Amino acid sequence: MTDIAKGLEGVLFTESKLTFINGSEGILTHLGIPIQEWAEKSTFEELSLALLDAELPTAEELARFDAQLRANRAVADSVLDVIRGMPRGVHPMQALRTAVSYLGLTDPEAEEITPEARRAISVRLIAQFATLIAAINRTQEGQDIVAPRTDLTHAGNFLYMLTGKEPTPEQARLFDIALILHADHGMNASTFTAIATSSTLSDMYSCITSAVGALKGPLHGGANEAVMDMLDEVGTPDKAEAYISAKLDNKEKIMGVGHRVYKNFDPRSRVLRDYAEQVANKEGKSNYYQILETIEKTVVDRIGSKGIYPNVDFYSGTVYSDLGIKKEYFTPIFALARISGWCASVIEYSQNNRLLRPDAVYTGLEGQHYSDLKDRS
């Protein structure tokens, strides 16, 4: 008999210096530094560079990297024309998947798989994902594309391209923190997909296009959008407890609750909850936040003892909504952050590459012979 690890749970296939997760204790670190410290003290730009190089950068290295990101924000007009030509109403992740694939056609270095080329392409991808996603949103809304600015932070520039208005420092910082929290998370489905594609020695754009396709699935990237659907269904805070209790009694899934890895509070959800609360307090306790508070309390009281707690998706949607981002774009925003982790993981695995080739236990028929079509009933 052979044990099968369904969903590859518990299977170790590589080593990594980037991210450590202790799900039972609710710990997440990058380069050994707790995610709470990254969120409090760092920026998305710094974390991206730290992941790419697997070490903390110096001030000079960070300044150089930041300048490279700013210089590479613009994309070719042909890429924007492809985005403009996409049918109205397409799924934003479909649009992003196509845009990333086409972006590779405009990069003369796209077919290079040397370490130097992979890193240079990674810088461009991190910079340009923001431009692609903002452009997709604008065209799908029937608005003109807003060109990137080089005088804003990565987070601030994205919000500017999305809305056409320069965000406040508080808005830019809040979005920066949200990007930090989603930048990398170990061997999740999309990161594993990127690595699997990379292991064949395929090009970087193919790796990232594969990752976008994996993230599109609702079991991976779409949970925060589903949380907002749930909040709209609940309607008002006074209905939240009864709504969730009924779900629990019927053993139905509650979106944004539970995690494949964490059997304790997702540390990212603790950070986002604090910021969601700050935003809500400024607005006099927003309706969404009050519903989430009630849902969390009900869930923890009822099933917290089973290791089921809110995850990062639970509060991220409300933060994005407060920044004026529509829920259809929550998953592309996930990609906007995770592009750093995808690129870093591909680069790391490429240093000691081995083609990924798992096996399956055969459960089909044996001893059969081919029969002619005329003889089959």
TrEMBL record:
Q: Which SUPFAM superfamilies match?
A: Citrate synthase
Q: Keywords for this entry? A: Transferase, Tricarboxylic acid cycle
* Annotated TM spans: none
| InterPro entries per the UniProt record, alphabetical | 2-MeCitrate/Citrate_synth_II, Citrate_synth-like_lrg_a-sub, Citrate_synth-like_sm_a-sub, Citrate_synthase, Citrate_synthase_AS, Citrate_synthase_bac-typ, Citrate_synthase_sf
The record's Pfam families line, in alphabetical order, gives: Citrate_synt
Question: Pathway listed for it?
Answer: Carbohydrate metabolism; tricarboxylic acid cycle
Q: Which reaction does it catalyse?
A: oxaloacetate + acetyl-CoA + H2O = citrate + CoA + H(+)
What family, per the record? Belongs to the citrate synthase family.
**Entry protein name:** Citrate synthase
Q: What is the lineage of its organism?
A: Bacteria, Thermotogati, Deinococcota, Deinococci, Deinococcales
